[in-house]
Automatic annotation (TrEMBL), chain A:
Ranges for region Disordered: 77-101
Ranges for domain RNA polymerase sigma factor 70 region 4 type: 126-164
Native source species: Ciceribacter thiooxidans
Domain RNA polymerase sigma-70 region per the UniProt entry, residue ranges: 14-79
Name of this chain's protein: RNA polymerase sigma factor
Biased composition (Basic and acidic residues): 77-88
Location of the DUF6596 domain: 183-282
Superkingdom per UniProt: Bacteria
SUPFAM superfamilies, A to Z: Sigma2 domain of RNA polymerase sigma factors, Sigma3 and sigma4 domains of RNA polymerase sigma factors, TPR-like
UniProtKB/TrEMBL annotation, chain B:
Signal peptide positions on this chain: none
InterPro entries: Dimeric_a/b-barrel, YCII
YCII-related domain location: 1-114
Family: Belongs to the YciI family.
Record organism: Ciceribacter thiooxidans
Domain of life: Bacteria
Name of this protein: YciI family protein
Amino acid sequence: MSTPVGEGALDDAFRAVGGRIRAALAARYRDLDLAEEAFAESCLKAAKAWKDEGPPRDTAAWLYRVAERTALDILRRRRTRTENRPDEPASEPTAEDRLTSDDAVIPDERLKLIFVCCHPAIGGESRAALTLKLVCGLTTGEVARAFLLSETTLAQRLVRAKRNITEAGVGFEVPEPEHWAARLSAVLSTIEIAYAKAHEDAAGSGRHAGFAREMFDLTALLAEMLPEEAEVLALAATVRFAEARRPARIDSTGAMIPLVEQDPALWSQPMIAAARGYCARALGMSGPGPRIMQMMIHALWCGRRSVADPPPWKAVLAAYDILLGLRDDPVIRINRAVALAEVQGAEAALIELDRLDADVLNDFLPFLAARADVLSRLGRHDEARISFDRALALGPGEAERRFLERRRADLVGK
Amino acid sequence: MQYMLLIYENEEIFGGPEKTGPLMAEIGPKHFALIGEMGAARLGGGGLKGTAFATTVRRENGEQTIHDGPFAETKEQLGGYYLIDVPDLDAAIALARRVPLGRDGAIEIRPLIPLPPGVTR
């Protein structure tokens, strides 16, 4: 108990319990700013107190008790400020707080907080940002980098979103089951967007790297809290299938390896097993929804055990056909075209890709990479080169850049 | 919390500015059914005659003028409203979803600025 704690360890401890404590405070006081402020203050107090005396037995309970009291102090300060009275000193944790080890003292209100952050009254772009900040504890800077926004812009958006929650009277409740379809879908889209950002980066070293872990934890949390929702379980499975392949996603030179060329022996089997657990539960309860089909495509790939197993292109294409009937969007069409190139040939794939809106997608790396690949297979090297150059001009991550450069170099002399 | 549910529709479908057309006869009872279900949550409400009967008091550069006609020409006009008192936005959305519309249209939900203590609406 008297070992001093390093700053990194403290940050980890704060981040691990932050979502839960902020959610509990926000639920109690119905004030997101107060929850954030009180938790931040209690972390400062903890950093000071634990440095001198060592951490308490249960750091979470300690932080929560202190944050609770800090919230009351802040409320009192706000009140006295308007009445022109001097601030009262903030109370210090008691000996009892240092000894308590009851994690159960913190009510788990994270699901409510997620639903509040993803309320349809809040702009679509702000939902993910707010969730990442309040539930996952990312800093404004981290979230801003993830969405390629300046910190000032994002901070303004967050302020607006929080004001919206208060002024429009968003209730701090998990909505009634009949409204889940709409609300849950906003929550799941938020997680999908955030995870897609992490997954784009094969090396896991870019600015979205931390997201993968957060989304991993968040999907586990949602699956635990909503065990009867097939789409929730499907998303938890998808994130695990995708994370299982991470060790095989870059080669020794640091270049990205496309899924079909990865060595399945490097995939994490324990992680795949965890994914299959969620997968089986999800399949047991519903027909094919879009997230169920996404999960199935990942499951098909993760069924390969070695490079000798033939890639499941035909089954993948069939799954994309079903998925397209459920959710028609360009990303799915691009992925389907990649499978189509393998099953029916590059010509068919190019026809599909050229049906998409190039004006919009010419800034979208997966589109440009897929088109470049198909064009090079067809021997249309000049056009392929243009697509590779456009993709590279978007400034992809290190691993993706190396991969694209190599493919582009392969065209030379052909 | 108090909210105003503002009902926007293309008023032309209701048969003239008096709004006495067949669609009005059809939608009226639906409103009364909703009013019954709202119970005490409904503080007030009403339908508005067409914008042809509108008069606008406008202030421009400090000078007040009175015009006939609505404040702005739009595809959908404010046609009626409900004033409700419900626990939160979701409850307001739930009621707004049930407001009958003649055809396409929109219900805008606006929280009211709270009144000072002692002042009644």
